[in-house]
Amino acid sequence: MSKLTNLKGRINYISSHARQENLYAVYETTDRKFWTELAKCNQEEFKRSGTEGKCIEARELIIALPESFVDYEPDRLLKLFTEHFKQNYDVECIAALHHNKRKTNYHIHLIFSERKILDDPVEKIATRNMFYDENGKHVRTKKEILDEDGQLRSGCRIIPKGEVYERNIFTIKDSRFKSDSFLDEVKRSYTDLINIYVRNDKEKLKVFDKNGVYLSMKKVGKNNPKAEQIEADNRVRTMWNQTVDRALVSGVPEGQILEVKQSEIGQKAKASIQKSGRNPALFKSLIMTAIYALELLSSKVFKRASEKADKVTEAFVKSEPEQTKVRAVNEPVMAKTEPILEMPKKSVLASKYPRLADIYNKLEKQNAAIYQREQQLASVEKEIAGTKGIFKGKQRKELQEQAEQLKAQVANMKQYLSSIVQGYGYKNVKAFLAEYHASKAEYSDYLSAVARWEQQTENKAESDSLKARLQRKQQEVEERENNRQSHYYKNDRGGR
After folding, report:
1. pLDDT at 328
2. 41-44 long-range contacts, CB within 8 A, separation 24+
3. Does the pTM exceed 0.85?
């Protein structure tokens, strides 16, 4: 959402075929005269208030649409989205449906009023002559608007007694349009509307959860004077999100990640804003501190899990083959009177498990490689701390260069960790893990159902064949998960 300080110019820009290469439709809930009067009203009130800055004449929403929506008739689509807003908020709108030059961004520009037309305009009549200076400010005496020669200064005006000095045809501005909650509400409302009309479930949208573990990215926009600042802010936000991905792979619970985010970023940022206003440099510092805290937590959890995995691996190697059989664990004894079940069918989600398990193993392998590189960095930094004095300057410089190289490698490896799931169509590691764990649970249920079915059937030829295949598959999966950490310390090949 953006504030409009030149309403007439903006309307012309979004609705003109001469200025828009890919303009498909324009829809208006009222005539153009309304917007002229609205701008005039806002400017007059702004002058009377004496507020510094620029007058906000209206507000604009930019609504991104799935590319598949090009299949819908443009005029009807635009009318649907515009009337949706008007019905929800009871204000006038003007909207335009666009594509960018490369036709990669299908979107709606929706301008809306913060005021409504009064049923009965309010007119104020001057009970005496009224005097206004060049700034539109009401002054007490005529002398205050005259020059040295006693003439009326340019821009000043006099309203004679009995004439209308103020005419209001609009209500006051609706304050809800200023709030962050309004924007969240609109996002959810339009997300729900879009999801009704998408034909492919993969195109369905979700509203970013501000209370979740990740930090949202800021939109730079075209010709934004703060573009460089926003891009720098987004880079540090990306670093936090990558650290969150790594923490989730390491096994850090979401609740603990949220605690770090809220205590180190949310609460401290709020306190800072209340004390001295917004400070981008300080916000970056807060995020970097939070990243460091989360990295320490990730390393602690990863180390503990690795030590546990090593003990499990050792016990697994020493155990007899009979102790590793799957059937002894997963096959409950069924009563003979129970009716024979049909052959269980694998669900769509269960069918995904082998593929998802491979992705999960890639994440764990990359995470182990990152951990090993971080241990190398910690060792080098420890050496740097021990190289004090003028005679160790050369050694210290070499170690510092080595540390910088390792830091760059770790940063690249973290970036690659996040890109693994993105390459498979997942927004982040959290989204992947949600599907992975659900798939794993359904796959386990499927194996249990097959085991019960085998026990009830007497068709040994078919049962033994299927049973052997399933046993081998689950054996492979369990061995891989039991031993997943043991080999990571040998080398870091595969880590990028």
Report:
1. 40
2. 41/115, 41/168, 41/169, 41/170, 42/115, 44/136
3. no
